[in-house]
Specification:
The protein is mainly alpha-helical. The chain has helices spanning 2-12, 18-42, 49-54, 57-88, 94-100, 109-120, 125-134, 150-175, 178-186, 191-220, 223-227, 233-243, 247-274, 295-325, 333-366, 370-378, 381-384, 387-413, 426-435, 437-449, 453-461, 466-477, 479-495, 498-503, 511-520, 524-548; strands spanning 89-90, 290-291. The protein starts with a helix and ends with a helix.
């Protein structure tokens, strides 16, 4: 009897497979920078937390909250309004504007900031035209709004990010049933009442999700707020670390950013959980669009065209104009070296991230263990964490490892290998993988979820092992999703600025850092070619996004 019990226990004791172990290792690597930030913040070499609280931290936090709320509110108003108009009404240009409203996603916010200042500054076309029309001779003769200000930063960020709200809200309005509209109309509700009492409450979870993304991206932004001289928590990380040379203080500010982002994520999930609506009808009929005519039709066209013009036409037009006027800068060898750095680092990071995402999802599906399943959703936090936070969490531990390894090799051989991890693009690739891992993981999870488990079972019954099942069964059926994830991760790597500024090796420029450095020196003509290339790469992702949301 005792031998039987021992045999049963041996049968139940199962060692984890290599897929489970690999999935856990990938998850730990993705989460490690976040834990590193918290560890450094809790145990800094020099605790300046009291000094931060009494001096700069309240200003950083207050400005960040104002920026988040302002951008979130403006994006919600513009994105929701545009989504309602294109979903419920027919007006001149609606078909084109429905997709053109996605194009601002191709313009990084920092590029929009450079373009806006160039367009509205004293020597720009607007003020030059005003002086010519009214005969003003200097800035003392007239008043013009301050361009580099908090208000301008909110405007630029909202113009670049409102498509997040627009895309999700438009999908929510499309899914609403005509029955609810007909009931509200039969009760005497007008167009605004139907929007306010029916359409808006049903779409509120989608709006909340879009606004949460916008607010998190606002916290992550560095190029825009730095150019407009708005001191936020992200700029505080840079100044505390690079100017004050205090890594512990930077980690403490980064931990505040991290908790702020986690709070936003939790609030978004709670709001969606508390507001769930179900279609009880077995026959779903979409709401028919109402044709508009006269002034109302043209007002609707104008209301949708203005955000598109502000978010895409203005920045793209200004950058294109400078790129044409300064055509000689296209032959600059440093530009094409930055192109090579961008393509190589972004491409390597995209391939590694997608492969790791597929491996993790597949490993969790094969594993019957609890730990991999618990770690799977945690790995998405990297996308919510700002690039500056990841920069702190990656660079400080890697620098310590680098110095330890270099000292060890020097002591044993007398040869100094230099900085192996932080002196190369390794840290940059790692930060991109962690930052955008959620995109690859989400695409792989959704694609594998659409594959019937019976196909895998049939392949296993024919003698295929687990790796062969992944390659021969899953991959052909999820090829399109994998390709889309590769493109999206690559585009985000191209546009990423804060992490790149912190983690790039010395004298190592990408397109994003080249645009930022040249524009910071007021040399927009020299920054224009790199900015145009970033915009073109962004257009590829927007095209893919539009195709997926037809």
């Amino acid at each position: 009897m005792a031998q039987a019990e021992t045999g049963m226990q041996g049968q139940h004791r199962r060692w984890p497979s290599r897929w489970s172990v690999g999935a856990v290792v990938i998850a730990v690597i993705v989460v490690a920078p976040i834990l590193s930030v918290l560890g450094i913040a809790l145990f800094p070499r020099e605790n300046i937390w009291p000094h931060l609280i009494s001096t700069t931290l309240p200003r950083y936090l207050w400005n960040t909250l104002i920026l988040m709320c302002g951008v979130g509110l403006l994006s919600a108003m513009v994105g929701t309004g545009a989504a309602w108009l294109v979903s419920r009404y027919d007006f001149p240009g609606r078909r084109a504007l429905e997709w053109l409203l996605l194009l601002p996603l191709a313009i990084p916010a920092y590029v929009g900031a450079y373009a806006l200042v160039d367009f509205l500054e004293y020597a720009g076309p607007v003020q030059t035209a005003l002086r010519g029309i009214f005969g003003w001779e200097s800035s003392r003769d007239y008043w013009f709004p301050q361009i580099r200000s908090m208000g301008a930063a909110i405007l630029v960020l909202a113009a670049a990010m409102f498509p997040y709200v627009y895309l999700l809200t438009r999908a929510a309005f499309r899914e609403q049933s005509a029955a609810s509209e007909e009931v509200a109309q039969s009760l005497g509700s007008g167009a605004f009442a139907r929007f306010w009492r029916v359409g808006l409450p049903l779409a509120r979870p989608a709006i909340a999700a879009g606004v949460a993304i916008v607010m998190m991206e606002s916290v992550n932004d560095f190029g825009t707020v730095d150019y407009f001289a708005v001191q936020t928590l992200t700029t505080g990380i840079f100044s505390t670390w690079l100017e004050a040379n205090n890594a512990g203080g930077a980690a403490q500010i980064a931990s505040v950013v991290l908790f702020l982002v986690i709070f936003l994520v939790l609030m978004e999930k709670v709001s969606r959980r508390k507001m769930r609506f179900f279609n009880l009808s077995t026959r779903h009929r979409p709401v028919p669009r109402k044709p508009l005519s006269g002034p109302a039709a043209w007002l609707a066209t104008l209301a949708c065209a203005l955000p598109f013009a502000m978010g895409f036409v203005l920045p793209a037009g200004v950058i294109f104009g400078h790129a044409v006027e300064n055509a000689e800068n296209w032959t600059d060898p440093e530009l094409w070296l930055a192109v090579w750095h961008t393509l190589s680092v972004g491409g390597i990071a995209a391939v590694i991230t997608v492969l790791a995402g597929v491996f993790l999802v597949y490993g969790v599906r094969l594993s019957g263990r609890r730990l991999p399943r618990l770690l799977l959703p945690v790995t998405t936090i990297g996308y919510a964490a700002p690039g500056a936070v990841l920069g702190v969490g990656i660079l400080i531990p890697l620098a310590a490892i680098d110095n330890f390894v270099a000292d060890g090799i020097w002591g044993l051989t007398g040869w100094d290998p230099g900085l192996i991890l932080t002196g190369t693009a390794f840290a940059l690739v790692l930060s991109y993988c962690v930052r955008f891992f959620a995109i690859a993981q989400g695409a792989a999870d959704a694609a594998m979820g659409r594959v019937s488990p019976n196909l895998a079972s049939a392949a296993r019954s024919l003698g295929r092992n687990q790796g062969q099942v992944l390659v021969d069964i899953y991959y052909p059926l999820m090829r399109a999703s994998v390709a889309s994830a590769l493109l999206l991760v690559f585009v985000d790597c191209v546009k990423e600025l804060p992490a790149t500024l912190l983690l790039r090796p010395f004298n190592y420029d990408t397109l994003a850092t080249r645009v930022h450095e040249q524009a910071s020196l007021e040399a927009l003509g020299e920054a224009a070619p790199a900015a145009m290339l970033v915009i073109l790469v962004g257009l590829l992702a927007v095209g893919l996004l539009a195709r997926a949301n037809r």
